[in-house]
């Protein structure tokens, strides 16, 4: 709703020669027309409400209630239900709007040829859309089944590959662990034998040290 509250109207005389005295509301739409040189914008008044100036005085409030015009309806059924009443409402299915052709969406209405296409008194039939949807679902069913089969096959292949990859990873990890532990045990044994030459490990290391093998090799070659 719109409220006009006149708390105090100043007593000023305004000549009506160059400025008409009007009290009320008006609405208009703007349209654009292109020419070779520039764009022309035209504002067209399509509705107005004039109040009686004699009833306007200080302390008066005026309330404008919103009227249910065509562009307030958002579906075809409610739009055509108000056709032929105060406003000649029509439904344009291309832009999904209800209008009598004279509101702020007039340029869109004209551009979409709604003033020619919205002449029917009935809403568009949805049976063809239902048939098209059913036909699409039925015809695409085999391909969808094949797609599901290919999808299941690819999932099974992916799972088997993942299992094989996991098994290989476990085997390689175990081998590396055994190798590292063996090298660590050999290093610890060598250090123990080196620091304790009288121990069995130390005696074995003395008997099998590289210099012993070199001396044996020299003796064998010298005897030849």
Spans of at least 5 consecutive residues whose pLDDT stays below 50 are 126-145
Number of strands: 6
Going across the biggest sheet, name each strand in turn: 1-4
What is the approximate shape? rod-shaped
Q: Sheet bearing the most strands, described?
A: 2 strands, antiparallel
Pfam families: PSI
InterPro entries: Plexin_repeat, PLXDC, PSI
Protein name: PSI domain-containing protein
Transmembrane segments: 169-193
Task: Give structural notes.
By secondary structure, the chain is α+β, with helices and mostly antiparallel strands. Among the domains are: about 1-65, no CATH class; about 165-224, no CATH class. The protein is about 45% helix and about 15% strand. It contains seven helices and six strands, in the order E-E-E-E-H-E-E-H-H-H-H-H-H. The chain has helices at about 75-80, 105-110, 115, 125-140, 140-195, 200-205, 210-224; strands at about 1-5, 25-35, 40-50, 60-65, 90, 95-100. The strands form three sheets. A two-stranded antiparallel ribbon has the order 1-4. A hairpin with a 4-residue loop joins strand 5 and strand 6. Helix 5 packs across helix 6 (about 200-205). The radius of gyration is 49 Å and the shape is rod-shaped.
